[in-house]
Amino acid sequence: xxxxAEARAALPVSEIAASxxxxxxxxxxxxxxxxxxxxxxxxxxxxxxxxxxxxxxDGVTRPxxxxxxxxxxxxxxxxxxxxxxxxxxxxxxxxxAAAPVKKEFKASACGLRATFVAGSLLxxxxxxxxxxxxxxxxxLSMWMSGPENALWLSLGENPHPARLxxxxxxxxxxxxxxxxxxFHDERLSASGRMSCASCHNPAFAYGPxxxxxxxxxxxxxxxxxxxxxPSLRYLYRQPPFTIGPDIETGNDTPVPLARQVxxxxxxxxxLKTAQAPQAAASNMVPQGGLFxxxxxxxxxxxxxxxxxxxxxxxxxxxxxxxxxxxxxxxAADFKRLFGPSVFQNARMxxxxxxFAIGRYEIEDPTFHPxxxxxxxxxxxxxxxxxxxxxxxxxxxxxxxxNCAACHLDQPTPSGRPPLFTDHQFEALGVPRNPGIPANRxxxxxxxxxxxxxxxxxxxxxxxxxxxxxxxxxxxxxRHVFFHNGVFHSLTQVLDFYADRDxxxxxxxxxxxxxxxxxxxxxxxxxxxxxDTVDAPLNRQPGDPPALTPAQIQEVIAFLETLTDGYTIQxxxxxxxxxAGTEPPLDPAAAGGGAxxxxxxxxxxxRWVGQEPRSSVS
Length: 617
Hints:
Elements: H1 2-10, H2 13-23, H3 75-78, H4 91-97, H5 109-135, H6 140-145, H7 147-154, E1 165-167, H8 174-183, H9 196-199, E2 216-217, E3 223-224, E4 242-243, H10 257-264, E5 286-287, H11 299-308, H12 318-326, H13 331-338, H14 346-363, H15 373-378, H16 386-396, E6 425-426, E7 467-468, H17 490-499, H18 549-559, E8 580-582
Helix pairs in contact: 1-5, 4-5, 8-14, 11-14, 12-14, 16-18, 17-18
């Protein structure tokens, strides 16, 4: 018996696995050490390659060859005489359960050897698990605290699938259908060749098509803009601009911005961390609004801006645009929807047109499809690759990417999909972009909240250099990044985050004395506004970068899962029911989003029923 055990222990794991895969629970005990079955005055068990357990005459012994024989008894001999084998029982327990009722079974060398086989198989499984853990990007701490969750994650699965509440796909209202025609109408521009869709192309997630940092507009489409074109997708839950969370007043009267600014003065700022992003939601910092500087609170206001901007559609006067609406192919629809006298007031006609486009952006599901691989993964209907999983963990690791501190990636408590933004403003100190013609003037600075295009907070210099945190959904489709389009790839963006203050000379110019001019797109007196405390922007010269080049590519692999249009191909949870849907959009609903509580790395949100729809109107 000991010789068998020693020989068995000397076999490589590969041979153990091979023999086990061929015959089930078997031993690889070599024939050179054949133990004998001893008769005990009753039926003895012996193993034969072609039969398994069988009765042998008294006094007869046979070699116990577990290398090829199965331990399963023949049903004809053992039916009704032993408890059924259950998956998960130890092999030793099964061995003893297989003995005939009322017959004494003495532990033989084969019985002990079967116990040894079970231990060897367990050891092989442990070796395999250790190999998976070593290959997996899931950290050891997660394996120790939740091995089952870690296992599912390592396989690319979401251990806690969510039931997402997505906007219902319903036919567009008559107003939204009119808005769709207006969105694509080039007649409204001065050149007659530019529409909303020219800069916000549906094929590029309603973002820009090319790699130019700004778009050319105006009457001859030769006037350059000043900022990169953002995407219009996923704006339906954008809250209005405020300084900090909404102040409760007990009525519907909005709190003046001046009062909000005073309330924020001297308020301590919490660090943003991916492990507790909801804590930073209480920060008294600018948040919400539309455009890079948040100066518009409604989609109607946002649409009105490009229509009359001389560097964009350049529609001219309100009267000129109203005249084009009145002579357009949809004039009858205007009168039917807004009354026969709608064109008698030019401002009213234009306002109704902006309202219609806003309804189109709110109602049409292509503006908020939630069809990315990440959405499918949240619901347990997709599997991450190893690179995507590694990137997801780095995205959520507060000591690495810490991206989820600002780009919230968890469903809200009611199950609404994440928008990958906290709607807050940050001063990141991105380099000045010489590709923008306006930047050729050394005295020109785009300072975001405090001007030059937003004027109501120009005196609040503590906000100079701050720009809105955009959604990361469909970010892999973009070719220009940040408000000035200074970077043209996600690799450049993440490299900037990881290495900005460690090797600033890689990103910023030098003065005549050779000194690096950090944050050169912000005047020196406002550079203290730049975020240098939230990871990974808290590094100092001499520190290692928060992300290695290989890790940057893994984060990008995860960001690519945020692109809409994913087709579900695999699902551990295919038996799950379909996603929840939200009720019809209420055009009078107040804008606002909610932060979901983030349970470590894993989403836990569940669908809990419908709630009033938030929208921007």
